[in-house]
């Protein structure tokens, strides 16, 4: 067997090896570009698919809506057809368009619980509280154990800060409809308003045990622990929710807040970045990230983040404080002081509301308390809510001339505003 | 590090009573203060303890009045309040001792709710006389809380700053609050009450004061003041005032040097927490904790809100470093009231003590993990801008759960180790003797102003040893409703001598080289030597 010349085969191998290395290097060098192109292509395909799907859905929805509208208009006496159409509109967030159909259905059959529920829900979502409250009450007079009605009115009371009404209604509701998990959740939140955290926790733990695979129901447990400053528990519950619902930004936000409070800034930041990756416009997440940047001495990033929040959400008042301080520290005293003064004013206005709210919750049967709350709501431009408060004041004291006068004024102003 | 509760052996037998009612008036949650001051000029600190008088529907044992414990100079005390004329009925809150008429005897101002505040003039013969009305400092109609003597206009006479809480003239102003399924009445949140404003009384001399609150510019913001401390943030010689407000933004009144103040709390960063939330500010103190000449400010907060811990970053800017300092998480589960900085182990680093206790006596019914009685916390300064909570290693008092409110430090036995007075709400006052075994040295100064006010309040004292300069400011106020030792105290570690510099409010600067340690020196303004 002839021995190979000393170098030739090796040289070939080396040459091949070298070529391969060059190709690999070139490929590796090109890899980011190629991946970017591939990524762009995939994104383009994905966007196209999404647009087509949206267009198909829109078209299908329009067809469905048209069909429902035609059915409703063709058979005006058919309450169900009108209701179906109204429900679809409501589902699409078109409360104003939905309302006339639901109103017609209720007028045609004042004791139809479904119609009353839909109408009450429409009014509530449209923030027409002066109509929502009596409609929920009508539903409950027709169907006292209607779970939707009990929860709906309960939630409304909670949102008003009518803590005693909410608690009484929901405590009774939970007894009457013991298997309703949504009522238990609402009752738990009413308990939170009363600072009765133990009761709230018991209720929510019960809901969790009954429906472990429905984290939407027991997610408020994380919020409760955050409120109770039990941050480790809040993080634990939030993580449990996220295992089932990884895209739940609300609960991830709670996790981030608790991690921040535990001084685990790295994980808090990681969670906020996940939220912002999914929803770049998420204002609270942007704000909290800016706070973390501030605490970790990333002043420029913090300032940029706060400026972003202020531009997108001028009502997010805390931004004014941090940004104002950042400007003052950076020598931009004029700009800083202006923001700080605005923040202080907003805080003082908020304190007035908080005080009135607290007094109302303490004195639910005081016409005076409801009148003061009505004034606050009116001054904030919430005439609908002001009317609710004044109606309550006149119920409590039918001869209260101040309440009557303010109610008349508020109603007139609401009519004027709707024009 | 070791503290021992010596109340019983020292003869301190004082029951703080809040006149608890079933109606649950807000005032019942606040407690009352007390403090150390040497009323009879014998060189030993005496103790004053405030109490809450009976209110309609309330329950008390005996007649709760102010107590004055005279130091017997042998580790024991005798209550001489009756003979001294201090055993009065008042729903007393806070106190501050200072010699407002420069007669050499410390007077006592006591704030109150539901009635006038009192100015007890020290008659110099072991008795006091209430001269508040004649002096014009009754603070009538206001709910006075913490207070501080200070010479804000540097005229050599002590003026008086009073924190007022919420609008609450009579029990009819109390708001009822409810909680739980059974609609149980609970103590109400301060947010339900209208804000008040602080009061500044200018000492006109001849025993008279003028209310200059508005003219001085301290009524610019709404106040729910519970704590006050004084510091000169920019070293201009004019005293600035920090106020801890409960649920509304805190104040930093910067002294303009012309009789007026400007509130720079918001822009300096101390008005709100880092997250933009007003403090539930109760107690407060400021001192040079880092031995860098800059102020550190502590403000105790509500359960879960953590104690705020601000480091001064420039003359008018502060930054909340509570987490980096190791204070944040350690105070998360405490509802803090009294707080102060003091060097309890004489290592030359000021430590921090905080007493705690919830405001709702039945809180555990609704929040099982939140106790009403809570242990005090002792934070040891580690010298690297961090603190370590060492309470449980520091003796039985720190394992005792109390409803802590007032707290003060003072060296009642003049052994060079700082002792602690704790005033619980509805409980026995406690005197914790510092029995820390340590070879560390110390020095203490008893100031006597000549051109400046007699107490030397507002003097900046610098002590240098082993290349490190410690600084403090002689001040009243601080903590919550309480009065600490007016004698500046410095732990010196292994140093056996130190240089001392006193910058008096008058502008006089006295310097002393190689001052001996382990003793109390008297410093008279302008004199060449310490005594």
Question: What do you see in this structure?
Answer:
The complex is a heterodimer of chains A (419) and B (531). Helix content of chain A is 82%, strand content 0%. Chain A is an all-alpha fold. Among the domains of chain A are: 219-280, Alpha Horseshoe (Serine Threonine Protein Phosphatase 5, Tetratricopeptide repeat), CATH 1.25.40; 285-354, Alpha Horseshoe (Serine Threonine Protein Phosphatase 5, Tetratricopeptide repeat); 365-419, Serine Threonine Protein Phosphatase 5, Tetratricopeptide repeat, CATH 1.25.40. The termini of chain A are far apart. Residues 1-38 of chain A have low confidence and may be disordered. With 531 residues, chain B is mostly beta strands. In chain B, 5% of the residues lie in helices and 38% in strands. The radius of gyration of chain B is 21 Å and the shape is globular. The chains are: A mainly alpha (419), B mainly beta (531).
Write the SSE topology:
The complex is a heterodimer of chains A (419) and B (531).
Chain A (H helix, E strand, L loop, with lengths): L7 H67 L4 H13 L3 H14 L4 H13 L3 H14 L4 H14 L2 H14 L4 H13 L3 H14 L4 H4 L1 H8 L3 H14 L4 H13 L3 H14 L4 H13 L3 H14 L5 H12 L3 H30 L4 H13 L3 H14 L4 H18 L1
Helix pairs in contact in A: 1-2, 2-3, 2-4, 3-4, 4-5, 4-6, 5-6, 5-20, 6-7, 6-8, 7-8, 8-9, 9-11, 11-12, 12-13, 13-14, 14-15, 15-16, 16-17, 17-18, 18-19, 19-20, 20-21
Chain B lengths: L2 E3 L1 H4 L4 E2 L17 E4 L8 E4 L17 E5 L5 E3 L1 H4 L6 E8 L8 E7 L4 E5 L5 E3 L1 H4 L8 E7 L8 E6 L12 E3 L4 E3 L12 E7 L2 E4 L1 H4 L8 E7 L8 E6 L5 E5 L5 E3 L1 H4 L15 E4 L8 E4 L8 E7 L2 E4 L15 E7 L8 E6 L6 H4 L10 E5 L5 E3 L14 E7 L8 E6 L2 E2 L1 E5 L6 E8 L11 E6 L2 E6 L15 E5 L3 E7 L5 E8 L2 E6 L7
Parallel strand pairs in B: 33-39
Antiparallel strand pairs in B: 1-32, 2-31, 3-4, 4-5, 5-6, 7-8, 8-9, 9-10, 11-12, 12-15, 13-14, 15-16, 17-18, 18-19, 19-20, 21-22, 22-23, 23-24, 25-26, 26-27, 27-28, 29-30, 30-32, 33-36, 34-35, 34-37, 37-38
């Amino acid at each position: 067997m002839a021995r190979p010349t000393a170098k030739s085969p090796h040289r070939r191998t080396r040459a091949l090896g070298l070529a391969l290395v060059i190709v690999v290097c070139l490929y590796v060098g090109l890899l980011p570009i190629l991946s970017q192109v591939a990524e762009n292509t995939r994104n383009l395909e994905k966007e196209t698919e999404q647009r087509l799907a949206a267009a198909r859905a829109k078209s299908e929805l329009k067809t469905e809506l048209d069909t429902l509208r035609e059915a409703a208009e063709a058979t005006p006496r058919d309450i169900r057809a009108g209701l179906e159409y109204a429900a679809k509109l409501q589902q699409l967030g078109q409360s104003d368009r939905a309302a006339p159909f639901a109103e017609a259905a209720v007028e045609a059959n004042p004791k139809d619980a479904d119609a009353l529920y839909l109408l009450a829900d429409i009014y509530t979502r449209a923030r027409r509280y002066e109509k929502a409250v009596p409609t929920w009450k009508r539903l409950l007079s027709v169907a006292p154990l209607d779970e939707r009605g009990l929860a709906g009115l309960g939630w409304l009371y909670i949102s008003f800060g009518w803590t005693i009404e909410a608690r009484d209604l929901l405590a009774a509701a939970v007894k009457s409809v013991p298997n309703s998990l949504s009522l238990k959740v609402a009752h738990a939140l009413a308990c939170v308003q009363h600072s009765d955290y133990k009761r709230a926790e018991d209720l929510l733990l019960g809901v969790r045990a009954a429906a472990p695979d429905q984290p939407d129901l027991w997610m408020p447990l994380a919020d409760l622990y955050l409120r109770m400053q039990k941050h480790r528990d809040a993080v634990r519950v939030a993580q449990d929710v996220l295992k089932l619902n990884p895209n739940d930004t609300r609960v991830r936000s709670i996790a981030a807040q608790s991690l921040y409070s535990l001084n685990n800034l790295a994980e808090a930041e990681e969670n906020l970045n996940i939220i912002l990756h999914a929803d770049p416009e998420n204002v609270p997440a942007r704000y909290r990230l800016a706070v973390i940047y501030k605490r970790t001495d990333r002043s420029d990033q913090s300032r940029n983040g706060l400026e972003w929040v202020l531009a997108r959400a001028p009502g997010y008042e805390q931004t004014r404080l941090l940004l104002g301080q950042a400007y003052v520290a950076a020598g931009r005293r004029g700009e800083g002081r202006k923001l700080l003064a605005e923040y202080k004013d907003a805080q003082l206005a908020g304190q007035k509301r908080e005080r009135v709210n607290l007094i109302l919750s303490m004195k639910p049967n005081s016409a005076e308390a409801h009148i003061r709350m009505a004034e606050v709501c009116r001054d904030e431009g919430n005439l609908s809510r002001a009317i609710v408060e004044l109606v309550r004041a006149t119920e409590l004291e039918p001869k209260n001339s101040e309440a009557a006068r303010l109610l008349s004024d508020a109603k007139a102003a609401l009519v004027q505003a709707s024009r | 590090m070791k503290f021992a509760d010596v109340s019983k052996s020292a003869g301190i037998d004082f029951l703080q009573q809040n006149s608890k009612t079933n109606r649950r008036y807000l005032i019942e949650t606040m407690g009352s203060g007390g403090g150390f001051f040497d009323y009879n000029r014998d060189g030993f600190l005496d103790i004053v303890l405030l109490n809450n008088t009976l209110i309609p529907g309330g329950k008390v044992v005996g007649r709760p009045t102010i107590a004055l414990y005279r130091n017997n100079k042998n580790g024991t005390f005798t209550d001489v309040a009756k003979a001294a004329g201090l055993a009065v009925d008042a729903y007393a809150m806070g106190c501050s001792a200072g010699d407002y008429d420069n007669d050499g005897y410390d007077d006592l101002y006591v704030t109150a709710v539901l009635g006038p505040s009192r100015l007890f003039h020290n008659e110099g013969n072991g008795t006091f006389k209430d001269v508040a009305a004649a002096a014009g400092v009754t603070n009538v109609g206001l709910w006075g809380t913490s207070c501080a003597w200070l010479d804000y206009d540097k005229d050599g006479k002590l003026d008086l700053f009073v924190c007022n809480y919420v609008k609450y003239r009579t029990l009819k102003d109390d708001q009822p609050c409810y909680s739980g399924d059974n609609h149980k009445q609970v103590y109400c949140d301060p947010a339900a009450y209208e804000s008040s404003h602080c009061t500044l009384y200018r000492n006109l001399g001849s025993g008279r004061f003028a209310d200059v609150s508005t003219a001085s510019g301290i009524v610019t913001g709404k106040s729910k003041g519970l704590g006050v401390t004084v510091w000169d943030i920019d070293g201009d010689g004019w005293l600035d005032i920090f106020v801890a407000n409960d649920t509304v933004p805190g104040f930093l009144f910067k002294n303009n040097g012309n009789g007026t103040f400007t509130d720079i709390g918001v822009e300096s960063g101390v008005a709100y927490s880092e997250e933009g939330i007003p403090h539930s500010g109760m107690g407060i103190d400021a001192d040079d904790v880092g031995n860098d000449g800059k102020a550190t400010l502590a403000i105790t907060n509500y359960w879960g809100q953590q104690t705020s811990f601000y480091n001064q970053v420039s003359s008018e800017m502060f930054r909340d470093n509570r987490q980096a300092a190791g204070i944040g998480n350690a105070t998360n589960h405490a509802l803090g009231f009294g707080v102060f900085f003091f060097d309890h182990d004489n290592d030359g680093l000021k430590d921090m003590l905080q007493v705690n206790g919830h405001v709702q006596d039945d809180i555990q019914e609704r929040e099982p993990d939140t106790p009403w009685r809570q242990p005090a916390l002792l934070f040891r300064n580690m010298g690297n801008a961090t603190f370590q909570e060492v309470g449980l290693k520091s003796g039985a008092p720190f394992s005792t759960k109390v409803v802590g409110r007032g707290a003060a430090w003072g060296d009642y036995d003049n052994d060079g180790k700082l002792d602690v007075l704790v005033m619980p709400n509805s409980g026995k006052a406690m005197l914790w003797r510092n029995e820390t075994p340590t070879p560390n040295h110390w020095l203490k100064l008893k100031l006597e102003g000549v051109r400046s006010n007699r107490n030397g309040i507002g003097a900046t004292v610098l002590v240098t040893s082993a290349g490190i300069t410690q600084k403090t400011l002689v001040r009243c106020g601080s903590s919550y409703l309480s009065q600490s030792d007016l004698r500046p105290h410095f732990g010196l570690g292994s140093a056996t001598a130190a240089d001392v510099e006193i910058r008096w409010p008058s502008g006089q600067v006295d310097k002393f080289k190689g001052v001996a340690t382990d003793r109390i020196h008297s410093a008279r303004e302008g004199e060449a030597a310490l005594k």
